[in-house]
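Shall we go through a protein fold together, starting from nothing but its sequence? Please make up or recall a protein chain and show it to me in full. Go ahead whenever you are ready, and we will take it from there.
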Amino acid sequence: IPALLHQTPARDLDKFISRFLQPNHHFLAQVNKAVNTICSFLRENCFRNSPIKVLKVVKGGSSAKGTALRGRSDADIVVFLSCFTQFTEQGNKRAEIISEIQAQLEACQQEQQFEVKFEISKWENPRVLSFSLTSQTMLDHSVDFDVLPAFDALGEAPGCRPEKGKDRSRQAQLGPYHCAGEFSTCFTELQRDFIVSRPTKLKSLIRLVKYWYRQMPKGKGSLPPQHGLELLTVYAWEQGGQDPQFGMAEGFRTVLELITQYRQLRIYWTVNYSTEDETIGDFLRQQLQKPRSRPAWSPDSGWDLLAKEAEDCMSLFSYFKKLSFWTLYPTNCTLLRVQWWSGELCPGCECPLGSKRL
């Protein structure tokens, strides 16, 4: 049983992560081999006698990003199909598509040899297909997968990053939709690659933050999505100097400090798109300018609970009071004018995190 996190000295956090949080390397290799076999089987066998074609099969989730925790983790396999020509069509023919993919998963299970235990969830008329891969020797090591059919919004070969503003017809598809995140599976590759390209130590910090998040006491209320903390960790590292060999304790404290100041944060990236495009720019502004009646950090969002836990956690670490943390500056507002709850933050305004104003 790992020692409590707050009892781990600052100098030993890297060892704590390596010993208790990183998945077993042998099991990871077995899972990757099995997933490659499953993806190839689905790509080659699904809809063989149908006008529907499998365009590509993509791995997503923490296992694909390199941020999975030891024990039980989650991942996605996204099957991009030719029958979808826009986002809203993903609900079409769902029963037929799920039935075909399930049949091929079962065939793969019977015909292929695996070094891990391959179990398919049995549900009558499932909306989502699920299966698990479990170690034959370490039964507490497993990965739960969801298999998700999706529209190929990027239209690129696997591993390719779309050029900003390359296809305005795809960008224009955003126009009629206002449910942010509803079609996030279409962008699994971009979500994965955004993390995969980061230094190994940053992925270790993400693991540490995720572990801390999962230790939250149950029953106090809902918490924000874990994915938000992953992005917050990346932001802290980017703004804190991008040192690939940073101090783990300083990085961890910086993320906790950011969580306590969630009301002052509006973070976004333009790595995979350009706000110069009118449609994309308008869509992003809609996400950043939520109505004040339901701000993203309202009590029911769970950020207040998480901030309280972050404060409690920092008080438990005896060395945190003496520990330095990264100096961060306000989120970038040069592309978009962001309205803050307590007023406006003007481009060029500098206010280090340590001043408690951010």
About this structure: Residues 289 and 339 are 7 Å apart (CA to CA). The chain has a mean pLDDT of 81. The longest strand covers residues 72-81.
